[in-house]
Structure formats: structure tokens, C-alpha cells
Amino acid sequence: MNGSSAKSTRDGTAIVPAQVADAINQMRRPIAIAHVRPDADALGSMFSIALAWANDAVTPRVALPPGSLSQRLAFLFDMADVPVATSEDFVQADGFITLDTAKQSRCHVGTELKDTDWRKGRPLVNIDHHGTNTMYGSVDWVVADASSTSEMVYYLLRAAGKEVTPTIAALLFAGIQTDTSGFALPNTTASALRAAGELVHAGVDVGDLGERLCHSQSRSEFALLRVIYDNTKVVADGRIAYSTASYQEITGSGCTAADIDDQISVVRALNGVQLAMLFTEGEPGKTRINFRGAGEVTVVELAGRFNGGGHSRAAGALVDSGPEETVERVLPAAIEHLSSLSPSSS
User: Fold this and answer.
1) Does residue 325 sit in helix, strand or coil?
2) Crossing angle, helix 206-214 and helix 166-179, to 10 degrees?
3) What is the pTM of this model?
4) What is the band of 12 on the pLDDT scale with cuts at 50, 70, 90?
């Protein structure tokens, strides 16, 4: 199934094309790759693929350049204990599996390889749940209504006859839990809940995992949250809220760009907000924008105006300007976007 997407039933098991497992089974030195600033879904699905296919004849690696891991999610890497790909591994690889990454340009291969032809015509299996995926793989499996890439990987492992160990189960559960915001978002389908339930049966310690994901903030992460709260502003009669964090504020709190993850939830939590945005300067002069829509308000179109993408109500973009300049550019577009929607949304 080259260059095409596949659907899943929202009340049933994801449909796994046979070509996906067949393509991975032909690889002996694959590298699993996720997106820049990987979240729990990206890490969980990437690590699980590497663990599930590893055996005496297959030696998977994961792409994890220095500075990739947030403080909060570093435990997932420790749990997985998978080998990290070196530059030499990229030379010797006979294929790639990309997870949760909508564009090849967003593959997290590191600064040394980013602007090179690291793929060099070798097979690439693209597994993702973003509707804006550009279908850049030799095999593409994109299910836009899946809760997470981790949900897709769970059904792939089951279809491929791979063992779901307690470690793999915990990694995939973390991805599903976080991408559904604790099973509280509209993407929490019966298929997602079924996968989560079966993963618990496979050995997930839900209490321990939840404690690590939700109640283990470092003091620096807590300080960064204070910045987000302090910088939050509300406009458009309370329908739009946004916050900012400059490079100096992020590093001053003791954090790095890798620690920018779900702080958008602070802005989104305000009552009456239909469109939430977070502007964070992970490196000087480059601002990441997180967009969230509530109810019937979609944001992927807004992200697209700034060369971004994502999901219908959760999207992002990266622009070459500081937070203040970026807000000046994006805020009028956000107000216009909200006004262009149906009267019930505006």
C-alpha cells in the first residue's frame, strides 16, 4: 500500500495492512525514527517497534540525538533500554521505520544528518496518525482517526504475531494515555480503549506509570509552568487564549526545548476558550506554536497557514522569529480563523 492511507473503525480494531509487517520483516538493520521533540507517543511507539523486532538476526536501533529527551519522559528510555543509532548505523541501515511523524523533514535524525540524504533510496515504512501526513514512505500506513501511533503499533504487533511484553505494554500505554489526555479527548475511541485494556492485561502497572507521567515534575518543570501561567493572555471576548515562553525564560527555569510538551493544557483549561495557543522559543529566533481547538473549532487549517500541520483540533508549526513577533503575526490570523467558522463557534 504505497502512498495511500488506511482507515480504522472507530468502534473496532484498527485494520493493519499486511504490507506493513512484511516490509519491516525484510529489514535486518532497521532504524526507528520519530519526530523532533518526541512526546510519549513518539517515544513509546518507536521504542516498542525496536524491542518487538529485535532478535539474533535483526538489530534495530532508534534515532535519539542528544537533547531529545524531556526530564519527564527520560524514564521511558531507561525502561526500554534500546540501542541508539550512531552515524555509522545510518550508513549501514537497510531500512527505516518512522513513527508519529507527518513529514520526512520532521524526522529526528540530528543536526549532522538533517540536511543530508540520509535515506538514500532505502525502504521506509511510515506509520502515523496525523491527517496531514505527506505519504513520504515506500510503505505508508496512516490512520487519521487513530488515537495515537502507539495504538496503531499495538495492533501491528498483534497482527505480526509479536510478543507484547510488560515493557512494550507500558511504553504503548503511555503513548495512548498521553495522546488522549488521560482518555479525556474525542480521540478516545472504543478501539483506543480496547487497546489500552489489553495492554493492562499484558502487564502495565497503571498506577506506577500514571505517577511517573502525571505526578513527577522536577522543580525546573514546575518553574516553567509558572512562566506559562504568568504569561497567559485572553482576547476575542475570552474565546482565544495564548501564552509565551522566550528562550531566556525556558533556560532560566532550568529547562530546555525538550521539556516543552503539554504546557498548552494550561492555556486550554480556561473556561470559555475555544482556541488556545502556546508560543515557545526552544532555540533563539525559532518559535514553536501549539494550537488547540475546543468543541467544533478546528485548528489544523490555521497551523497550515504557517507551514505547520497535525490533527483537526491539535496542531503545531515552527516559525523563524521570536515569540513577540510571532504572536503579532499569528494572533490576527487566529482571530480571523475563529470568526470564519460557523456562528455557533464564533
Assistant:
1) helix
2) 50
3) 0.87
4) very low
Write out pLDDT tens, residues 131-175: 999 999 999 999 999 999 999 999 999 999 999 999 999 999 999
Cα 121 to Cα 24, 58, 154, 215, 322: the distances in Å are 16, 20, 28, 44, 36
**Phi and psi for 322 in degrees, rounded to 5?**
-75, 170
Residue 346 or 196, more confident: 196
Question: In the chain, pLDDT over 70 holds for what percent of residues?
Answer: 95
For the cut 90, the answer to whether the pLDDT of residue 344 exceeds it is: no
**Residue the block writes with cell 495564548:** 242
Into how many domains does the chain fold?
Answer: 2
Please state, in angstroms and rounded to a whole number, the distance separating the CA atoms of residues 305 and 277.
14
CA distance 210 to 214: 6
- Contact criterion met (CB below 8 Å) for 102 and 128: yes
Q: Do 189 and 280 belong to one domain? A: no
- The answer as to whether 107 is a domain residue is yes
Q: Which residue shows C-alpha cell 525556558?
A: 250
CATH assignment of the domain containing 244: 3.10.310.30
Domain with 39 in it: what CATH number? 3.90.1640.10
**CA distance linking residue 113 with residue 50, whole number of Å:** 21
**Domain span including residue 165:** 18-212
The three-class DSSP label of residue 140 is: strand
Residue type present at position 113: L
Cell of 297: 473549532
Q: Are residues 301 and 164 part of one domain?
A: no
Q: Which of 157, 181, 212 lies at the terminal end of a domain, its last residue?
A: 212
The DSSP-derived string for 38-67 is --HHHHHHHHHHHHHH-SSS---EE---TT
Closest to 289 measured CA to CA, from 243, 336, 342: 243
- Exposed (0-12), middle (13-18) or buried (19+): which is 336, by Cβ within 10 Å? exposed
Same domain? For 38 and 175 the reply is yes
211-232, pLDDT tens digit by residue? Answer: 999 888 899 999 999 999 999 9
